[in-house]
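Aggregate trends can hide what the representation actually does to any particular protein. In the encoding step, the backbone of a single protein was reduced to a row of integers, each denoting a local shape. The record that follows shows the chain in one-letter code together with its fold in token form.

***
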Amino acid sequence: MIRPESEQGPAAARTSGGADFDARDAEGVPPKATGPPRRRRHPVRVSLIVLAATALTAAGIIAATGALGGDGGNGPVAAPSGPTRTAEVERTTLTRGEKVDGTLGYGRTSPVQAGSGAGEQPARGGGSGDGGGMLTWLPREGDVIKRGETVYRVNEDRVPLLYGSTPFYRVLNVGAEGTDVGVLEKNLAALGYTGFTVDLEYTSGTADAVRAWQKDLGRKETGKVAPGDCVVASGARRVAEVKANRGTTASGEILTWTGTKRLITVDLETRYEDLVKEGTKATVTLPNGTQAEATVTHVGNAVTAKPTGSGGDDTATLPVTLSVKDQKKLGRYQAAPVEVTLAAESRQDVLAVPVNALVARKGGGYAVQAVTASGVEYRPVKLGLFADAMVEISGDGIVEGLKVGIPQ
């Protein structure tokens, strides 16, 4: 533990009062952190207070001998004996993080309505999925549905999934033009149908390909596509919950679904808004302590909600979504609470040592116990950023690779 060089009692207590370290003024004892209490989050300053308290109570040496000198000078002072444990001064990047609560899952759900063209709102027009028939088949929760596969059946007619962003809001036939035609033709081509050009125009070649597609689906070969004949979504989908029952009228909400990859969602307090944007890197800690790297893929608009079960003030939050490229890092978890560490401050190419290598100096400030071929001495240091049980240090004689003692 860090102890003053002359005594271990009141002086140690005075320097371990839980104050937040200032990266640019480490020679004195910094003031206590102030600010409103947190309800759910883990502010950076709390982490630094803990690190500071740890540094001032968990690492120190020979407190009763006065080994660091009585005049409080800034020069190196000889140590009486060598340490039993050492570490090296590292050149590294330190990142201080803001820890927030997140949820591992498949993301927010969206509904699929009977006769839906995009999984959001009911479509109008004909087709077997327009709400006028009976549901004869439904998928199971957890099923993954890909392009061309059946979302549900109405009167035994298959309603398949197509990929795209424009719903089918009208009957598509020869002569139709528009982005919805482009969506249909791209999907037909991806499913292996030919005889047309993928563009925005519905030609007789498109109609022939549609007839071949309808035959394979076991549907009437009309050469036309109506709203409700298929469902359009951005990609493969995973069924979250089945809302309807077989044998009932195909109307209203049939099911909800999500994407197929596990991701992290965070309701981020707006005071941390400056820490996130698309592409921001973060670290996710799972319930078993393992970690995975994540990237912010979406930052929504602020939403104001009153905390559940509390009479406190409204809290504004931002819906934030993070993706995890290496899905294996998530193990077998399908849904779980997680901790997300967002980078709040980063210092590159700095010299750092473990926090417990610091020694409190008589008269204020800190030193490290330098171990060299010629002996052991205390070298005063200035402190910088604290992060991940490491601390940035600088000072005369502090170089990369220097061995420093770890006091018992």
